[in-house]
Design goal:
Length: about 230
């Protein structure tokens, strides 16, 4: 592929990486990771609520990685309640998983920015070592994509397997018992998925630029050398 087209592809991949870094940073600070509704089970059983009456006992909940909000509905109107994961909820949530999610989000941002820098370096500079050239680009993209996948897996297990929404809903509740009525992953969670897909797309752009995947056998091993493969 001609050098100008390679520059365009690498610049495009660098822009994608920068957007992903901004998106991940914005997602970390929002409350839009999970949205759902919670049922005041105790109140509904006391009045044997069914049908439209049951709506008076269904509140809302939403939260992110650091803080959130729930609306308590027990038949007498909604009562909003703000909460923070640190340090309030550390005793009731799987803290190790939650901290790991935050850690991998940080790693994702770092390696996304590193990848962006190396994409631009490959576009306008002269790469001369393995990690400076296309092999390095594959590495940074693979690490960033893996971090995004780990974030989604860990957070999904925290929410679904460990019933995070229900634990939050029953935090400091003595008289009433709450049960998760519905929940879904919100915008910030899907931003992480989109970033993982973008990093996978970046690996395809590297391949489109004419560079073989790492560890693949060259077609003509007799004429290729390590330095020549990385230069363009």
């Amino acid at each position: 592929m001609p050098a100008p087209q390679k520059k365009i592809l690498f610049c495009l991949a660098g822009v994608f990486s920068f957007v992903c870094a901004l998106g991940t940073a914005a997602a970390i600070g929002t409350q839009l990771w999970v949205k759902g509704t919670i049922l005041c089970k105790t109140g509904a059983l006391l009045v044997n609520a069914t049908g439209p009456e049951l709506e008076k006992f269904i509140g809302e909940i939403r939260y992110g990685l650091f803080h959130g909000e729930r609306v308590r509905q027990c038949g007498l109107g909604g009562r909003p309640f703000q909460f923070s994961f640190f340090p309030d909820l550390l005793k009731i949530i799987p803290a190790s998983i939650h901290v790991s999610v935050i850690l991998f989000c940080t790693v994702l941002i770092i390696f996304t920015l590193v990848g962006m820098g190396f994409f631009l370096y490959n576009a306008f500079g002269s790469p001369y070592e393995t990690l400076h050239g296309p092999v390095g680009l594959y590495l940074w993209s693979f690490i960033a994509c893996s971090c995004g996948c780990l974030i989604m897996i860990l957070f999904s297990s925290e929410v679904k397997i460990h019933h995070l929404s229900e634990k939050i809903a029953n935090f400091k509740e003595k008289s009433f018992t709450f049960k998760t009525h519905s929940e879904r992953f919100a915008d910030s969670f899907w931003i992480i998925l989109a970033c993982s897909l973008v990093h996978f797309l970046n690996t395809l752009l590297i391949r489109l630029a004419g560079f073989e995947f790492p560890f693949s056998k060259p077609k003509d091993s007799g004429t290729a050398t390590g330095a020549a493969d990385l230069m363009y």
